[in-house]
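Sharing a chain and its predicted structure for anyone who wants a worked example. Both blocks are below, sequence first, tokens second.
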Amino acid sequence: MATDDLDAPLGQDIKKRRRFRIPVTVTQVIAGMLGLIVATFGGWALVASDPLGGEPMIVASAITTKGEMPLVASGPRKYDGPGATPSVVASATPAPPQTPSQTNVITIIDGSTGKRQEVPIAAPQEGRGRPEQSLLEGTRHGAIPKIAPDGKRPAEAYARTAKLQGKPDAPRIAIVITGLGVSGNVTQSAMSKLPGPVTFAFGPYGFEIDRTVAKARADGHEVLLQIPMEPFDYPDNDPGPQTLLVSLSAEQNLDRLHWLMSRFQGYVGISNFMGARFTASEPALAPVLREAAKRGLIYVDDGSSHRSLAGQISGIDNLSFAKAEVVIDAVPTPPNIDRALSRLEALAKERGFAIGVASALPASIDRIANWAKSAGSRGVVLVPISAVTSKPSSS
């Protein structure tokens, strides 16, 4: 080592090593990555064709008018009001089978108890047990009943023959069970216990309601469609979606009626569900009854409201009409149900026929099933609702 090196101050004339450094900071890296993500998303938004922006969609089958293969309609399916164009996009792809994931859930509120019932509702399935095409009219909501070109009415086409068992003059009793289709267990109980002449009234809601109705008809029951109508305490007492309201115009109520009529097919007529306020208003009720008459249906008043004008209006509209005289389970206990059935028998023997209505309650189903077993031995005949309705004059 040289002497000068020993005498030199420490650190001088010695070359320093440079450390390797990244030319950007961590903060700059993170900022760059975020910028790349934003740019990518913005570019996708410019070229992608999704007007709903990722909004949830369902798939429903669209009705065709010429017998073609059903189309898939992609997009939100909701009630848009009369005259609106459904917000769907059709493509020529076979419609997939309905699944529970494609259903909506609606809430029905019982105003007397405050009970809220969640009910799944699916789009009607056109492929199952399709009724005669001559009795169907296509609408934006789906197929609804109409009088056939040859004059045949749905009320006649779907009616069951009354079995009078050799007693044409025997007093006739028709019983209508309401509120079916919402609870699968209750509906199954009614179908397994009650004889064919008992008429079943189904609400427009419930999953696979069309299949349930087809099963009831195959078992020999006549079927009614229950139409939700406005009660006096609406909306605290809410019959469900598409309820007919006094505050709506006739056009709006008829559009709702068509939606309800499209839920299933094969019914001989319609009946009110609640509706004390609606059935007491002639301007609100009259267009609905005219529409029922126009489409060859029966209208059955369930007798729950003494203010109902249906009986008065039906004669003007030349409508097939029936009204229940006895609410069988007004007090839903077995002894009271039995007494109501006895009153129904007495009324039938007095005037030749009588109509009773009952809710789909377990006690009601059991007592009516037990009564029906021995009704013939007491001189009365159980018949479907079409056998005791007033008939319109032919025109």
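Comments welcome. The CA atoms of residues 86 and 140 lie 8 Å apart.
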